[in-house]
Design brief:
6-stranded antiparallel sheet, single chain, Yope Regulator, Chain: A, alpha+beta
Length: 159
């Protein structure tokens, strides 16, 4: 008899993730080492690239929304403050910024811990990710290019 805490069968995670995007008619392409995927998302506030990193052995799924514009060197301190202020209000996922590259992205992750994956879990992870990026994108752009302070940008988002 198989234990309920045993890991999901190999490849099950990747198969379910591929099925999720296919069922939503969301075109994907392989990214670096398969079975990771890259795709585009069009939100109300912009269009950006996304990554779904599938770690079969670890039974983890990590989704990134990558901001369409990186932080210029002279705005990275302000963007770092924005990211920190935004993260203090978020319960699901977090913003990251590479200080060397200026890349700003939002990350959500799921560690299955040996439990089976479901389409509902993938849906929550993926759509939670892109909807939060869409919500915060105007604030990111205002800090990067509109000379808006991180405090004011967060206040506008949180309304």
């Amino acid at each position: 008899m198989e234990s309920s805490s045993s890991p999901a069968e190999p490849r099950a995670l990747a198969e379910e993730v591929h099925r999720f995007f296919a069922d939503h008619d969301w075109p994907t392409a392989p990214y670096e080492e398969p079975p990771s995927l890259q795709m585009m998302y069009q939100g109300d506030c912009g269009r950006w690239g996304c990554l779904a990193l599938i770690r079969e052995e670890e039974q983890q799924l990590i989704v990134y929304s990558v901001c369409p514009a990186g932080a210029p060197q002279e705005r990275r301190t302000q963007m770092g403050e924005f990211v920190t202020r935004a993260n203090s209000r978020l319960s699901m996922g977090n913003f990251e910024m590479g200080y060397e590259t200026g890349e700003v992205r939002f990350k959500t992750a799921l560690d299955l811990g040996g439990h089976p994956i479901s389409q509902a879990l993938i849906n929550q992870l993926v759509f939670g990710n892109v909807l939060l990026m869409d919500r915060y994108l105007p604030g990111i752009m205002a800090v990067l290019y509109g000379d808006v302070s991180p405090v004011d940008a967060i206040a506008q988002i949180e309304g």
